[in-house]
Amino acid sequence: MPLIRAASIADVQAIARVDIETWRTTYAGILPDSVLVEMSTRQRSAFWSRFVAKHPGDLIVAVDVRNQVLGFGSCGIQRGSCLPNAGEIFSIYVAPDQQGQGIGRQLLLSLFFRLVQSGHTACVLWVLERNPSRFFYQRLGGRVVARQTLTYAGRDVGASAYAWADLPETLNSRGRTKSPTG
């Protein structure tokens, strides 16, 4: 089972690699090819470096015994107002060759725990409507509470906000009552 821990600056190159790989495999045929092709490790590394510096502890990684990044997730203050007292999960991605092994579930529950530690009792997570991962969020109790249209390179894409209204209860019902990140 992988270790879940807070990300550091030393992880950003690997996070950027997983970020790009998952976007290219998950969003092929959903987003314009130009969006996927133009993604660069340098640009994504810079983004994640800034995030780690500004929001310590809000970016987590799943690593194997060799400390190789298998997946990551980020969370923080809700950007909209879909749900009162809610935090938001901004990203959660697992390397394509590591999917289906429970890593995503571990990351999601760890992000829930982080949000509870930060004083949030609820959570929202925006998902592109054609993203097959939406079923993963539904299985873990997420319910659609809002919809919006996003535009990528001139193409409109539907997105749904999945919500968990009671994070402490969600963590309790999933058997997670202490910090998964140590």
Per DSSP, what share of the residues sits in E-state strands of 2 or more residues?
25-35%
Give the oligomeric state of the chains in this entry, treating copies of one chain as homo and distinct chains as hetero. Answer: single chain
CATH topology: Aminopeptidase
Note the gap between the termini.
15 Å
Task: List the domain count as a whole number.
Answer: 1
CATH class: Alpha Beta
- Rg calculated over all Cα atoms: 16 Å
Can you lay out the helices and strands and say which pair or pack?
Elements: E1 3-6, H1 12-26, H2 33-37, H3 41-54, E2 59-63, E3 69-77, E4 86-94, H4 103-117, E5 122-128, H5 134-139, E6 143-152, E7 155-164, H6 167-173
Parallel strand pairs: 4-5
Antiparallel strand pairs: 1-2, 2-3, 3-4, 5-7, 6-7
Account of the protein in words:
The chain has a single domain, classed as Gcn5-related N-acetyltransferase (GNAT) (Aminopeptidase). The protein has 6 helices and 7 strands, in the order βαααβββαβαββα. β2 (59-63) and β3 form a beta hairpin. The chain has a 7-stranded mixed beta sheet, sandwiched between helices. α1 packs across α3. It has 182 residues and is of the alpha+beta class.
